[in-house]
From TrEMBL:
<keyword id="KW-0418">Kinase</keyword>
<comment type="similarity">
    <text>Belongs to the GHMP kinase family. IspE subfamily.</text>
</comment>
<dbReference type="Pfam" id="PF00288">
    <property type="entry name" value="GHMP_kinases_N"/>
</dbReference>
<keyword id="KW-0808">Transferase</keyword>
<feature type="domain" description="GHMP kinase N-terminal">
    <location>
        <begin position="72"/>
        <end position="148"/>
    </location>
</feature>
<feature type="binding site">
    <location>
        <begin position="100"/>
        <end position="110"/>
    </location>
    <ligand>
        <name>ATP</name>
    </ligand>
</feature>
<dbReference type="GO" id="GO:0005524">
    <property type="term" value="F:ATP binding"/>
</dbReference>
<dbReference type="InterPro" id="IPR014721">
    <property type="entry name" value="Ribsml_uS5_D2-typ_fold_subgr"/>
</dbReference>
<dbReference type="GO" id="GO:0016114">
    <property type="term" value="P:terpenoid biosynthetic process"/>
</dbReference>
<dbReference type="InterPro" id="IPR004424">
    <property type="entry name" value="IspE"/>
</dbReference>
<feature type="active site">
    <location>
        <position position="13"/>
    </location>
</feature>
<dbReference type="InterPro" id="IPR036554">
    <property type="entry name" value="GHMP_kinase_C_sf"/>
</dbReference>
<dbReference type="InterPro" id="IPR006204">
    <property type="entry name" value="GHMP_kinase_N_dom"/>
</dbReference>
<feature type="domain" description="GHMP kinase C-terminal">
    <location>
        <begin position="213"/>
        <end position="277"/>
    </location>
</feature>
<feature type="active site">
    <location>
        <position position="142"/>
    </location>
</feature>
<keyword id="KW-0067">ATP-binding</keyword>
<comment type="pathway">
    <text>Isoprenoid biosynthesis; isopentenyl diphosphate biosynthesis via DXP pathway; isopentenyl diphosphate from 1-deoxy-D-xylulose 5-phosphate: step 3/6.</text>
</comment>
Length: 293
């Protein structure tokens, strides 16, 4: 009988706001971001390999865009965890890639975080979330927050995390133009034309009134949105259309782009907006769901 597979979801990450607040001497940018997660994402499975090897196969609508080389973040996470645990166990991993690649919603980071959680269970490692988050920072700035995949205020270069709260089960619509935008070029554009943002004065760690929460969120922004729009004007076009959809509460770009999101009162409203947007722009990737609490 084939060994039983274990599964982990790798939900899409959204930067509800993202402020670049400074830069370290080693050139890493200091960020402040309210990060939330959706019920839209990739899915990872694993079974034990008796021969001790680590392998990865990929499927899904965006699977063809990923390499199964040793440098894939999932395999890097697997090797890192195996080294930390001091075991020789192997695993056959399979990634169902449903999210666009390099699109500002943490797909690769979410996959790496899912691999750490999944293999920690498969190999009975017993590591806590904090241990996995500490390991994750070496794989990428977004990996620590993706370990728990709960709404959080993220600071520093991704290593400082504070639990936050959502005031309502908002629906969410994700749109990607299926055109790449280079993260290094976006940050280079910010350094040329942007200025460091002030740290947020609002306390995001308590669950407030939804209307007040949305007011403060609208007053925040994404420091990288303007330079990303300069590189890919299609982002501004998408945001304009999203903002005009019925019941849209907020439209913004996530991360360094190019995925944009819109918040709605609930998941059915987001699903209706997805049908509307998809009919207007069949050339885009469109997905609707809800924010995870």
């Amino acid at each position: 009988m084939a060994p039983a597979a274990l599964f982990e979801d790798a939900p899409a990450k959204l930067n509800l706001f993202l402020h670049v607040v400074g830069r370290r001497d080693d050139s890493y940018h200091l960020l402040e971001s309210l990060v939330a997660f959706t019920d839209i994402g990739d899915r990872l499975s694993a079974t034990v390999r008796a021969d001790g090897a680590l392998s990865l196969t990929v499927s899904g609508p965006f699977g063809a865009l990923l390499t199964e080389s040793p440098e894939n973040l999932v395999l890097r996470a697997a090797r890192s965890l195996r080294s930390r645990l001091g075991v020789s166990a192997g695993a056959a991993l399979h990634l169902e890639k449903n999210l666009p690649v390099a699109s500002g919603i943490g797909g690769g980071s979410a996959d790496a975080a899912a691999a750490l959680r999944l293999l920690n269970r498969l190999w009975e490692g017993g590591l806590k979330e904090g241990d996995l988050a500490g390991m994750g920072l070496a794989l990428g700035a977004d990996v620590p927050v993706c370990i728990a995949s709960h709404v959080a205020l993220m600071r520093g270069v991704g290593e400082v995390l504070e639990p936050a709260a959502l005031p309502a089960p908002f629906g969410v619509l994700l749109v990607n133009p299926l055109q790449p935008v280079s993260t290094p070029r976006v940050f280079a554009g910010f350094r040329r034309t942007g200025c460091f943002a002030a740290r947020a004065a609002h306390d995001w760690t308590v669950e407030p009134d939804p209307h007040r929460w949305l007011h403060h969120l609208a007053a925040a922004g994404n420091s990288l949105q303007a330079p990303a729009e300069t590189l890919l004007p299609e982002i501004a076009t998408i945001l304009s259309v999203l903002g005009e959809l019925p019941e849209c509460l907020l439209a913004r770009m996530s991360g360094s782009g190019a995925t944009c999101f819109a918040l709605f009162p609930d998941a059915p409203a987001a699903a209706s907006a997805a049908r509307d947007f998809g009919a207007r722009r069949p050339d885009c990737w469109v997905a609707a769901g809800r924010l995870r609490g």
